[in-house]
Write a structure and sequence with these properties.
transcription; alpha+beta; 5-stranded antiparallel β-sheet; 11 helices; two-stranded antiparallel sheet; globular; 253 residues; 50% helix; WH-like_DNA-bd_sf
Length: 253
C-alpha cells in the first residue's frame, strides 16, 4: 500500500488551505504554459519538473516511466534530483519503485522516521546523505494504470498540506497528458521523442545481456550483479552499464 503510518495521507485536517476551489487549475495551467514555452518534446519532462518545483515547497523533482526491468528516467529539475532517480533505479527500491508496483502515492514526510528507514534502508540512507529529508512520489496515469512516477524531493521534513497535495496531483495529471501526447519531435526527423531519452535504458539491457554471457547466468542475476557492482562503487547502474557496453568493465565468475 502506498500510504502507511509515517506518510502524509493528505495534509493536516485543520489546515486553512483545506477545501480550496478550482482556482488552482488556472494557476497550474498558467505555470505549465509559461514553463513549456519554446520547449521541444524532449525537453518537456525536465521543464515540467521545474514547474513542479516552482509551484510546490520542494527542492527537486524527477519523472520516470515504467520499464520492463528498470524505470526509464526522463527528466529532472536538476542534477541532484536526476541522481536520486538513478539511485532508485540502481537499488531497485525506493518510493518510485513502490508507486510503480502499487499505483498508490507514497508521501514520506521524514526519511529519518522508523517507517521510512525500515521500508527503504539503503535509499533512505543515501537520500539523507544527499541532504533530502522528505520524498513525495505520485503515480502518472489514469484509470488505475500507472505508467510512471513524479518524484518530489525536499530538504526539510514535513507533510504537504491538502492544497499542496492537490497542486502536486494536478501537475502529475498534466505531466501524464503531456508525455502521452508527445509522440514525435520534428527536429529529430520524425523519430519518436522518447527514443533519445530511452537510449540509456537500452544500454542497461545491452549490458545485462553481456553480463549474462560473461557469467553464464540469467537476466535477473545479471541485473542484480550490475546493480550490486554499481552500489559497491558508489555509482549508478547506468554508469556501470556504459562501461560494460564499451568494454571498460568485464564481470568475472
Amino acid at each position: 500500500m502506498g500510504v502507511r503510518p509515517g506518510d502524509d495521507p493528505g495534509g493536516d485536517p485543520d489546515d486553512p488551505d483545506r477545501g480550496t476551489g478550482h482556482g488552482e487549475y488556472e494557476r497550474v495551467g498558467e505555470a505549465v504554459s509559461a514553463g513549456l514555452r519554446g520547449a521541444g518534446p524532449a525537453a518537456v519532462p525536465g521543464r515540467l519538473c521545474a514547474v513542479a518545483v516552482s509551484l510546490l515547497p520542494v527542492d527537486g523533482a524527477s519523472v520516470s516511466l515504467r520499464g520492463d526491468s528498470m524505470p526509464v528516467h526522463l527528466g529532472a529539475s536538476g542534477p541532484r534530483a536526476a541522481r536520486l532517480a538513478q539511485l532508485q533505479a540502481t537499488l531497485g527500491d525506493g518510493p518510485c519503485r513502490h508507486v510503480l508496483a502499487t499505483g498508490a502515492p507514497v508521501l514520506a514526510r521524514d526519511l529519518t522516521a522508523d517507517d521510512s528507514v525500515h521500508r527503504w534502508p539503503v535509499f533512505a540512507q543515501q537520500a539523507l546523505g544527499a541532504g533530502v529529508r522528505a520524498v513525495y512520489a505520485l503515480p502518472l496515469g489514469s484509470g488505475g494504470v500507472c505508467v510512471g512516477t513524479l518524484d518530489l524531493y525536499r530538504d526539510t521534513p514535513g507533510a504537504l498540506t491538502d492544497r499542496q497535495l492537490h497542486v502536486a496531483r494536478l501537475v502529475a495529471g498534466v505531466m501524464t497528458v503531456a508525455l502521452m501526447d508527445l509522440p514525435y519531435d520534428s527536429r529529430d526527423g520524425d523519430e519518436p521523442w522518447l527514443s533519445g531519452l530511452a537510449t540509456d535504458h537500452d544500454r542497461v539491457h545491452q549490458a545485462v545481456g553481456m553480463i549474462m554471457a560473461q557469467l553464464g547466468v540469467g537476466a535477473d542475476e545479471a541485473l542484480a550483479r550490475l546493480r550490486g557492482d554499481a552500489f559497491a562503487h558508489g555509482r549508478t547502474a547506468l554508469e556501470v552499464a556504459l562501461d560494460v557496453v564499451s568494454h571498460r568493465r568485464r564481470f568475472e565468475s
